Structure formats: C-alpha cells, structure tokens
Amino acid sequence: MKKRLLALLLACSMVFALAACGGNGQSGTPETTAPETGAPETTAPETGAPEAKTVKVGLICIGDENDQGYTYNFIRGKEAVTETLAAKGINVEWVVKYNIGEDSSCEDANIELAEEGCQLIINNSYGFEPFMLKVAPDYPEIEFISCTNQASWNDGLDNTHNAFANIYEGRYLAGVAAGMKMQELIDNGDITADQAVIGYVGAYSFAEVISGFTAYYLGAKSVCPSVSMKVQFVGSWSDATAEGNAADALCDLGCIMISQHSDNTTPATTAQSKGAFHTGYNNDMIGVAPEASIIGTRIDWSVYFEYAIEAVVNGESFDQDWCHGMDEGAVVMTPLNEDIAAAGTAEKLAEVEEAIRTGALQVFDTATFTVGGEEVTASFALDTDGDFTPDSEEAVFDGAYHESYFQSAPYFALQIDGIEWLNSAF
Amino acid sequence: MHEVKTPLIRLAKRDAMPAWQVWCIRGSSFIAAILLGALIFLVLGNNPISAYGTILSGSLGKSTAIRQTVKIAIPLLGTALAIAPCFKMRFWNIGAEGQITAGAVAASYFALFWADRLPGPALILVMAAAGAVAGGIWALVPAFFKAKWGTNETLFTLMMNYIIIGVVRWLQGGPWEGRPGSQIIPQFDSKAVLPKVLGVHCGWIIVLVLTVVMFIYMKYTKQGYEIAVIGESENTARYAGMNVGAIIMRTMFLSGAISGLVGFIVASGANNTLYDGVAAGVGFTAITVAWLAQLNPFAMIGISALLAVLEKGADTLQTRMNVPASISDIITGIFLFCMLGCEFFINYRLILRGGHKEVTGA
Fold it and tell me: Looking at the structure, do residues A285 and A203 belong to the same domain, yes or no?
C-alpha cells in the first residue's frame, strides 16, 4: 500500500515536473524565435513593411545551438545574415527546425517547411540530402540547399544546391599556429625535434575529416619540419566522452598538440588537463581551455546565405554547387590566444592567409607531401557511377591537389606519409 | 488504542462499473489532459486555443498533412498489433524495437543486393517475407529460453534490442556503407520501394488488413483462445493439455514476424534505407497503444491515429509558433499519463483514512 501511495505521489510530482519543464522552455523560446522580424509573435508573415522585401527561409538543423559547435555555427551565420540583409532592405523570416534526424523525419521537415511557404530551404547536415531529394521534385518553385553534400551537380534537378567552404584553408592556418608553437618549444629546448607530435581526434575516416587533418598537418609542417601526427577516430560526430578519451590516449602516446574534427570541447579541456596545447573547430574554445587552446577555425555561413537568399529575393538563379574560402571570407579564424601562442604568430598567419587568398599558396601542394614515399601525380576527384570510388576529373594539376575544385564537398582522401592512423575501423 | 497501521490513503479494487460511468471517467480524463496541455501552452506564452487549432490543422488540415500523419500512424498501429497477442498471453515482449530493426535489416539486405536480380513485385515480396522471418527469429530466441528454462522475458527481449541496433551500426559503418566514412547506407533502388497509394506508401493498407486478421485471430481461432487461456492461468492451460512452451514460442514468432514486417514497411516505404534508428522508439510507444486499446485491434487504430495527430501537430506547432520541439513530447506525455491514469481509477478506488470517502476522478 505504501508503495502505491509513493507511486501516486511520484506521478503527481511528474505532472508538476512537466509543468516546470514548460516553464524552462519559456525562457528558451525567445532564442529560438526569428530575430527582429517586427511582429513579436512571428506568426504574421507578409503583412510587414510594404517597401521592404520579405523572404521566408527554412533551416533544418541536425542539432540545436546548444551544441556550441556545428549547428551553433549555422545559427551564428543565420543571425549575421539576417542583420546584413536587413541593412539592404531585405527582411528574412526564418523558420527553423531543430534536432532533426538523418532519416525520414528530415523528409517530413522539408515537406513541412515547403507547405509553410518557405521560398528557400536549407538542410545543414550531410545525411539530409537523400531525403531532401525526395521532396525537391514536388516543389520546383522552391530552392533546396544541402550543405556539405554533393548530389546537385548530377541529380537532374534545377532547384537543388550544395554548398561548403574551403575549411581546409582554415585548418592549414591553425596548423601553422600549432607548428610555430611546437617549433618555439624545440628552439627553447623544452622538447626535442622528434617530440613535436600532433594528436588529432577525428570523427570518421571520411574525406572531409581526412582533408582537414592533412591540411592541418601540412600547415604545421611548413613551419616545423620535424612534426609528425597521430590520428585517432572516435566513430561519432559528437560524443563528448569518446572525444575526451581519444585526446587523453593521444596525450599518453606523447602528443603535445591536440586538434579535432568533432563537435565537442572535451578534447580542448583534456589537452589542458594533460598539459598539452590545442586548436579547435567550429567555435572559439579559449573560454573552456585558456591555457591550451591557441586558435580555432570555422565556416562563416552568412557569406553563402547572403548570396543564396539575395538571389532568391531577386528571382535570379544561383550556383548549384558553391564553395569558397578565405577569398570571400567564408572561412574565418577564431581569435588567437596571444598569451600562449608563439611570438610572431599573428603576423605569420596574416601573411599565409594573404597568400592563400591570392592563390600564391596551394594548401595541397604536391611538392610538400608524399604517399608511400612518392609524390602524387594523379588522383581522381569525382565518382560518376555511384560506386563511391572516384573515377573522373583529375584533381592533381599545376603542382597541387585541387580540393573542392570540382565539387564543394571535400574529396581528398589520400593517406599521406607522416600521419599515422591509429585506428581506421571507422 | 487507535489504529496504528491504517495508511493515509488506501486503494481497493473496484467492482465492475457500469459502462456509462467508465466512459465518463475516460472523457473527463481526456478533458483534464487538454486542460493540462493548455496550461503548458499558457506557461510558454502561447494562446492554448490557437495552439490546439494549429495541432489539428497541422496534422489534418491539408491532404499533405494527413498523409504525413498517416505515415506516422502506420508503424505504431502495426507494432501494437504485433505485441497484442504476447501481452494477451502475459508475455512481456518489450523487444518490438529490436524485432522491427531485425526485419528492416533482412529486408534491406535484399533491397541492396538483390535489386538487380529480381523483378520489382517479387523483390518487394521477398523483402517482406525476409523481414517477417528475421523479426520472428529475433523474437523466437527469448521465447525459446523462456519456454525451456523460464528466463525473464522482459530483460531478455529488451537486451535483444541493443544487440540488433549494434549490428545495424556496424553495417552502417562497415560492409553496407555507401561513401567511405559517411556511416550512411545508400538509398534503395526504386524497385525496392513500396508503391504509394493515395500519396502514402501502401504500408497503411497492410496494417489495416492486419488489424482485421488479428481481430479474428485473437477472438475466433483456437490459437487465439489458447493465448487467452495461458494469459489467465498457465496451470489451467497445462491442465487442459496445452503445450504451453510451444504456444509461447509460436505466439512470439508471430509477434516478431509482424514487427519485422513493420520494419520492412518502414525501411522500404518511409526511409528507403536502413539506419540504426529505424525503429525510432515505435516499439515502446506501441506498448502504450496496445494497453490503451486494451488489446482490441480496432481500438488501436484510433489510439495510434491520436498519437500520430499529436506528433505531427506538435511538429507544425514548432514550425508556426516557435515553441520548442520538445513540446511534442510533453503534450504527448500528458495525454498518455492522463489516459493511462484513468484506467487505474476505473479499476481501483482510493479510501482516505478516517472517513470512508471515495475519491473518483481522473
């Protein structure tokens, strides 16, 4: 009997807990509403100022801004572009779907946004594209964008688009900052030359990740010739514990510099607790690891959003496959941690950034790396027959491997010398 | 001396209530759920009437919306039908999640590797059969252990879920992976996709047919009767000469097979691919559907439709009114809580210490 009473009380408390949850939700709601669209309840579209153009844009996110990483970076882009376009007299009304899975719920979300009258629908995750492609043919008047994916160039649809940024350029710069720090440690006699080992926490052995850590390694090597790198894959895009454990294991293997292609800040905090240094991705991580985090890099999505949304507003067509980097400011560095960075890092970064921007420096210069002891002279970029093995478009020419040249999604997947894959099961 | 042992509130089993009273309690608990939900909307700063209006128009307002709602209801109804015979037998199969996944894996195998070797309709039939058999086998394992050695079926079926979900993760990153490193299995060939009828994949026809079949099976067949007898008393069944172990295994195989068929429907009809979240919690939600329907197949249609309306409606609510997506879970939770709670008050009554007051209500 007492147990049943307890259960009853528990049930009652659950009801109150539910009500309390709702209360918390309230404080969170303003963050999720579309910013500065005049109408406070945001349900009154198309009635706003007659002279301003209004465009309704849908954004489908795999997470929400609480990840402080991938999706947060999209939300930052969304907010920045809303401001920029407001200044140009374009009123962007956003409809955002958070925490959508890479499954048929993504198809549902695309249908939902299309039915709500969005003129442009942006899908933010790689796995969304196949589901987006099921919806796009039914709504030819709506433009669909799949970020980081690659089907638009040959899916036969005019209203689908892909976009990515040359994030490897930012990785290269972060590598330069990391290399300078290690070279400084060598020059000061704190470590020997062969102790300059980078530990890299990667999500999966996926082209985007491989391209990123290779660029990072080449950046470090350009200023610290004795550097080597170990890569540990965690088998998840976002698993805070596994990422921290991987960073921990890498530190134990003698790595003194940690970087990552994964969504959480645990590699940064682990690096700090182990006395190693760190460079980040997607977000400034100096706040969580002030003694370890040197710099980070991220994509500034507002650049592409501005381009795409403006085209839609003006009724113009826009690129089906868009990819830019530092040339248009689509890849940016997060603030440099001057307290721990090597002397002269800021100047060097500015110099390298300029060289990348002008095209004077190629990140994947084939003279700077070897595969199996030999220089790379040929490698295909695109897969045309759907077997996931690249079979067309030669990526190596003019003395460099041209990443993201034939399509926006990264395709560099070579295992170069000097980078040791600790596991490749993923 | 006063009575030391009387607790503040006691519960007593009720005698059977007249039907009108039962429905009054159910009705009032439904109203209570609506009011509680309204409270949540008020706390969130939304007008409850327009919020409920959005839920209804978002889920049933347009033909596209109705299609989406039906799509959500299909696996719920199918899985509720699958677990009904087990629960009738008092065999607590909470492994529908894994049985759905197992069915989806088997169906996906044929979709991925036999698409160029079989003609379209045959491929679909083979996929359906493979899904059913795989789901059935996945359910048969715990049933066999239960029948032979009396293992705990609740834990066993639950743990079988995690095994098969792990297998799918392995397939996603390993042998069936599409683009290297992507962890994504390619989309099926169009031949392996369930055709659409009235804009929704024809899984809805399959589950509706199953509803009728299951009703007849449970109510009018010898096997259905055996299941009911075992549910009431295993010893009675044994005394009557039934082979309890065999019946348990047979029923579980049937249950798993229907779940596996649902897995096939979801993989082929809705997702057109396989991934580790293919069951998406349906295996657990379906338990609630089955219970609320009191294992009556036709009632399950209504309950799963209601849940689908809530889910789809709450989704639109998020799109139109910018309420957090988790509102869907909260509102659904409130409805389930009130509806399950009222069944409790129908079966039991509260007796307060002191007086002999009886508390009814929701």
Answer: yes
| Domain membership of residue A189 as a residue range | 167-299+331-421
CA A83 to chain B, closest CA, distance in angstroms equals: 20
Q: What is the ipTM of this complex?
A: 0.78
* C-beta atoms of B173 and A426 within 8 A: yes
Chain A neighbours among B 62-121 (CB < 8 Å)? 62, 64-65, 68, 71
8 Å CB contact between A165 and A299: yes
A152 plus A288 within the same structural domain: no
| List of chain A residues whose C-beta atoms are within 8 Å of the C-beta of residue B11 | 1, 4
Instruction: Give the residue ranges of DSSP H helices in chain B.
Output: 19-44, 48-60, 63-88, 96-113, 120-149, 153-173, 203-220, 222-232, 234-239, 244-265, 282-292, 297-321, 327-347
pLDDT along chain A (426 residues), means of 10: 48 46 38 40 44 87 81 91 91 90 88 91 91 92 91 83 92 95 94 93 90 95 94 87 93 94 89 93 87 93 92 89 89 92 92 91 91 88 78 86 88 91 76
**Residues A268, A248 share a domain:** yes
Q: Structurally, what CATH architecture does the domain formed by B69-322 represent? A: Orthogonal Bundle (1.10)
- pTM, to two decimals: 0.79
Beta carbons of A205 and B333 less than 8 Å apart: no
- The sign one gets for the Cα dihedral A13, A16, A17, A18 is positive
Looking at the structure, do residues A346 and A389 belong to the same domain, yes or no? yes
Q: What is the CATH number of the domain that holds A343?
A: 3.40.50.2300
Residue at A1 is within a domain: no
For residue B341, the chain A residues in CB contact (below 8 A) are 11
